[in-house]
Amino acid sequence: MHQRPSNVNFYAGALVALAFIASPANADSGSTSEGNPTCVHYRAEAVLGVAGYNHFVYVGNACASTANCSIVTSANPTPIDFTVVPSETLAVITYKESPARIFQVKVQCRLQ
């Protein structure tokens, strides 16, 4: 009698591999930078795209006034300037399709 092999292990392994591939990687960042207002927080994340990692930096402003900010990363040393209004979190993409999953972030903000 011929027994058919179980595909359950294959499917479980494939789901684990897909979950790993689809999961974002946190970059080297802090919640606040020295010199920034304590009400401005940020986090960085690398998300796997089609041909590499997309680098995102999320900057949240819990201050009563607008924050003028600038981001520099190890993958993109050209400053990216933007503003974040009070009670808002802004997602800034700093690099698309990078081969690097890990990157360092420097965020500088000052209140208006």
Primary descriptors:
single chain, 112 residues, mainly beta, Immunoglobulin-like, four-stranded antiparallel sheet, three-stranded antiparallel sheet, 1 helix, 13% helix
**Class in CATH?**
Mainly Beta
Give the total of domains: 1
**Pattern of helices and strands:** HEEEEEEE
Q: What ranges have pLDDT less than 50 throughout 5 or more consecutive residues?
A: 8-23
Instruction: Output the structural class.
Output: mainly beta
The number of E-state strands comes to 7
CATH architecture: Sandwich
Spatial shape: elongated
Biggest sheet character: 4 strands, antiparallel
The count of helical stretches stands at 1
Radius of gyration from the CA trace?
19 Å
User: Could you tell me the strand content as a percent range?
Assistant: 35-45%
Helix amount: 10-25%
Q: What integer is the average pLDDT?
A: 82
